[in-house]
Amino acid sequence: MKLKDEDKYNRLIKAAIDLLAEAGLANFSTTKVAKRAGIPQSNVYIYFENKQALLAAVFQVTVHEQSLAVVKGIDDEAPMTRQLVASIQTLYRFARAQPATVAALQVLLDDVQLKHQLHVKVDDEANQRIQAMLRAGREQQVLRTTDVNFLRYFLSRPVFHYAAGVQQQLYPDTPDALADLTKMIMGAVLQPAVYQTWLINLA
Amino acid sequence: MKLKDEDKYNRLIKAAIDLLAEAGLANFSTTKVAKRAGIPQSNVYIYFENKQALLAAVFQVTVHEQSLAVVKGIDDEAPMTRQLVASIQTLYRFARAQPATVAALQVLLDDVQLKHQLHVKVDDEANQRIQAMLRAGREQQVLRTTDVNFLRYFLSRPVFHYAAGVQQQLYPDTPDALADLTKMIMGAVLQPAVYQTWLINLA
User: Under DSSP, is residue B75 helix (H, G, I), strand (E, B) or coil?
Assistant: First the structure.
């Protein structure tokens, strides 16, 4: 892609994210995205075959951005529990800093029809890095031996929910509240004995 | 409402639930709901002022039905941890038995625009009963002292997610898996010392 084209592509993705975050899927259309991006609608189809292709691209971008933020916050050499805490807290800061990205991602993940059609690119290294951390955590008997996707659900969705609640002033945004959220998620995903030891070392 | 009217009202609600569960909000319209219910569209407006009013009614019905199922599964006299386990497992069975109701409820809860407009009826006794159980659990220092709504989030949304995953054959539907799901949620919502004691008593 030429630089100019890449700029248009990125503007369309950004406009799509903002529109999804504000108005959900019910009001989503390529017409509105084009208008918001300041690009003629006929041009949209140069970059995306149809609305479905645009949504698929938004899904890949939002998954990638949140994975990248988490990966940057993790020290590969640190003990597994510290990596998990870092992943929760980095994700929280990402969700607070990029509420539209997280809201759009959730809209896509929650849609009953889309969730069967959307797939993360297999070459998304940041995403793979997180999946690898979770598999390692299971192998080390730090994480519970449940499905890796279910572990990831627990490590991300309550964080998104809490961050959205903070934005709506339903939940407090204090260091204590973040510590509490972290403990709740660790209580869910850790092996009970590891959770107990982790709590003792915290105190 | 006359009996005949009540039947039409219920058919419209049911059609709306099924439509939301199948196709999400993006494809939701009173036209489609009327067609699905086998009722002329002009009649829809006798029962619901507009699409928004219909969605608000669907929200109240779905919240009420899931609350009612949970309340039926809870023994008021039982220890708090037993009540919490019963609420998780009853909700799981409800989500498996009524996937459309749960899917519709989630679509409504997750929509970025609707969630500010939808409210549970203050006189929904089943819903109030659950809120009261959670407040009692906090006062008894069984549950963590976080926001009651956040506790309820943890006690319900992972259950819905897991049940939907089972329906899509992503997660196993075994007694062990349900026991694991229960432990994860209890690990998140219980005070750590209570969680530890509860686990010991389970073994």
Answer: coil
Residue A1: pLDDT band with limits 50, 70, 90? low
Measure the CA–CA gap between A175 and A166, rounded to whole angstroms: 13
One DSSP character per residue, B131-184 reads HHHHHHHHHTTSB-SS-HHHHHHHHHHHHHHHHHHHHTTSS--SHHHHHHHHHH
Chain B residues near residue A102 by CB distance under 8 angstroms: none
Amino acid at B145: T
Distance between CA atoms of B169 and B128, rounded to whole angstroms? Answer: 34
Residue type, A59: F
Q: State if pTM tops 0.90.
A: yes
- B43: tokens are 């009649």
Q: Residue B141, Cα to own-chain centre: how many angstroms?
A: 25
User: Does residue B3 surpass a pLDDT of 60?
Assistant: no
In this predicted model, what pLDDT tens digit does every residue of B12-61 receive, in sequence order?
999 999 999 988 887 889 999 999 999 999 889 999 999 999 999 999 99
Task: For residues B102 and B90, give the distance between their C-alpha atoms in angstroms, rounded to a whole number.
Answer: 13
Q: Which residues of A129-166 are buried (b: 16+ CB within 10 A; e: fewer)?
A: ebbebbeebbeeebbbebbbebbbbbbbbbbbbbbbbb
A157·B162 Cβ contact <8 A:
no
* Cross-chain CB nearest to A196 (options B168, B181, B196): B196
The radius of gyration of chain A's CA atoms, rounded to the nearest angstrom, is 19
By C-alpha distance, which of B108, B107, B92, B66 is closest to A110? B107
Q: How near does any CA of chain B get to the CA of A152, in Å?
A: 11
Residues of B in contact with A23 (CB under 8 A): 112-113
What DSSP designation does B115 have?
G
Q: What is the rounded CA–CA span in Å between residue A87 and residue A70?
A: 5
